[in-house]
Amino acid sequence: MENRDIRIEVPVLARVEGEGALELSASEGRIDTLRLRIFEPPRYFEKFLEGRGPQEVLDIVARICGICPVAYQMTAVQALEQAFGVQASSQVMHLRRLMYCGEWLQSHALHVHLLALPDFLGFDNAIAMAGKHPDAVRRGLRLQRLGNDLIRLFGGRSVHPVGMRMGGFHRGPDPDRAATLLQELREALPDAEALVGFTASLPLPDDEQEFVSVALRHDSEYPMYSGRIVSDRGLDVPAGNYLDHFRESHVAHSTALYAHLDGEPYLVGPLARLNLNHDRLSPPVRAALEATGLRLPSRNMFHSVIARAVEIHEVVLEAIRLLEAYSPEEPAHVPTAVQAGVGCGATEAPRGLLWHRYETDEEGKVLSAQIVPPTAQNQARIEDDLKCSLEAFGLHNDDDALRLRGETVIRNYDPCISCATHFLKVRVERR
Amino acid sequence: MSKGEGRAPAAWRIIGIGSPVAGDDLGWLAIDWLRNAGVDRHAELLTLDRPGPGLLDHLQPDARVILIDAMEAGLPAGTLRELALDDLLAQARPPSSHDLGLAETLALAQALEVLPRQLHLIGIQMTGEGASVPSSEALAGELVRRVRAMLPPGT
Q1: Which of A58, A92, A227, B77 makes the best surface tag, with the fewest CB within 10 Å?
Q2: Average pLDDT over residues A123-149
Q3: How many helices (H) and strands (E) does chain B have?
């Protein structure tokens, strides 16, 4: 049985964003070829940005993704402010981090409860799961709504928000709405804390692998809006040096670019962040994490769901802290000017490191733009993971079981293929 | 006496779904037409900007709800249709992070037992060209007439 020739196709990958497929062929118990095919058409956003002014850039990049528009706006504004020599105030930095907490909260809550949990509790999808585990689904929806409310506090709306501008925000959060949200976040704290233990108690597969973790690292904060790009292999560079170490390349079977760090696949996202920054978690989150017995750094990609829960706990606490410190009297933006220049931005989107580079003319209009989203950076790692995971799972399993495990592995990365196209249909071929 | 017995029934809630951006703004336009016709005196009117699962916050078993959304059914632009819940639920796909549409959200509401016992669904055929349907008194009038027919007599 183990030596049969295998060919599995998953022609449409479910519970992920975008259009992609998995093709796998194996013989004599080993995988010969494995391709994560991304066939969603290229979207040419980098080209659309050429000739656009800074505010247009902020509004356009928000359209790259309906789940992480804030990440694109934050990274763009950071890069452009660097190009223009703008220094944001501490008030603006705190408000940006607060808004970003909202995006992490809504994105992670949705992924953990509606997309990942069915895999680990044995359901086809969240709708099928909701009848048996309504409280888990309701908890996810409550946390997600809170995240969206945080984004709306700054952006006017949670999808493609419009509140950001160069130097900060068009206006600061309304104090009354901020106070209401602060109370709701305090009430959600027990949910967020319990989620850490809940995810750690799930029957997660034991699948240790070798991989390189890459994330931002900040002097004191759990990384989100700022920090240096670091890896667990000694890399430690500012955002401006990204291209010295990371290379994007085309492959024939994907419309998304692949990224490598010094020639090797690498991981970005919650588990990479946690592996590299668990000492930056706030004390209550560290305590909740220690209570689970999880050892870090983890080499089990299935621990990503725990990492997301840890980050949910962290951002709820962080948002409470930032809202308690909010001073509506302080300006929500600083004066800005434009100039010819080059700027690079790196922030932590919910799915991992997001990097932008802009070259501008003297009017501040974009001459060239480069955007490297997290899913593109994870693609090579996902293929490596699939090969290791499926061989460890055992190719003697039937096609349906292999297909499900393959999809579970991919969903673990919460890939956003639309953002990367630059998701999943599976094809397994046994020869 | 059981909980809720003897209370007046909840007011009707009419929800326009979509976004303020042309092409997906039919649910929002519908709420404007209903407000202009004075329906807000008899029902709560609200618009939701691409709510996804956030729609569940507005659904309870004892709520009485009319949902209005743009639809793509291959009909002439601006065509109104009352949709059967079962037909819509049959179209629900497994949710993805970016794609929790109306059918999936209502299927989730059903699984969580929060689906309103009185629920009407109205779809308005969109143009498919990223533009609003041509502003039409006839369309607004037909929508108001259909909604009033769903509400108690005298509204």
Answers
A1: B77
A2: 92
A3: 4, 5
Task: Report CA dihedral (A174, A179, A184, A185) to the nearest 10 degrees.
Answer: 90
CB contact under 8 A, B96 and A17: yes
Do the bridges between strand B118-125 and strand B64-71 make them parallel or antiparallel, or are there none, so unpaired? parallel
Q: Which H/E stretch holds residue A238?
A: none
Dihedral, CA atoms, B72, B78, B82, B88, nearest 10 degrees?
Answer: 10
Cα A37 to Cα A31: distance, rounded to the nearest angstrom? 16
What pLDDT digit, counting tens, does each position of B111-121 carry?
A: 999 999 999 99
Quote the domain boundaries for residue B47: 2-150
For testing the chain A interface, which of B50, B98, B102 should be mutated: the one with the most A CBs within 10 Å? B98
For helices A399-411 and A374-393, give the axis angle rounded to 10 degrees: 150
Q: How many angstroms separate the CA of residue A309 from the nearest CA in chain B?
A: 16
* Residue B132 domain flag: yes
Q: What pLDDT digit, counting tens, does each position of A242-292 carry? A: 999 999 888 877 777 788 999 999 999 999 999 999 999 999 999 999 999
How many alpha carbons lie under 13 Å from residue A224 in its C-beta half-sphere? 27
In a domain, B155, yes or no: no
pTM, entire model? 0.89
**Are residues A15 and B95, on separate chains, in Cβ contact within 8 Å?**
yes
Determine the pLDDT at residue A427: 58
Cα distances (Å, whole numbers) of residue A404 to A61, A132, A133, B9: 34, 21, 21, 47
Token look-up 């010094």 returns A262
Kindly state the tokens that stand for A272. Answer: 């990479």
> Residue A420: its pLDDT value, please?
45
Q: Which residues of B touch A145 (CB under 8 A)?
A: 53-54, 57
Which SS3 state, helix, strand or coil, does residue B49 take? strand
* Smallest CA–CA distance from B50 into chain A, residue: A159
| Residue in A165, A178, A171 with CA at minimum distance from that of residue A74 | A165
- Please report whether residue B123 resides in a domain: yes
- CATH number of the structural domain spanning residue B64: 3.40.50.1450
Question: At which residue do the structure tokens 């997906």 appear?
Answer: B24
Whether B49 and chain A come into contact, CB under 8 Å, resolves to yes
* Furthest-apart CA atoms within chain B: distance in Å: 55
**Which of helix, strand or coil describes residue A251?**
strand
Residue recorded with tokens 């100039």: A339
Q: Where are the beta strands (DSSP E) in chain B?
A: 12-18, 43-49, 64-71, 80-83, 118-125
β-pairing, A426-430 vs A20-27, is parallel
Q: Which residues of B touch A418 (CB under 8 A)?
A: 98
For residue B94, tell me if it sits in a domain. yes
Closest chain A C-alpha to B97 CA, distance in angstroms: 6
Task: Tell me whether residues B94 and A416 touch, CB distance under 8 A.
Answer: no
- What are all long-range contacts of A157-160, with beta carbons under 8 Å and residues at least 24 apart? A157/B49, A158/A102, A158/A106, A158/B49, A159/A66, A159/A69, A159/B19, A159/B49, A159/B50, A160/A62, A160/A63, A160/A66, A160/A69
Q: Is there a contact between A124 and A158 (Cβ–Cβ < 8 Å)?
A: no
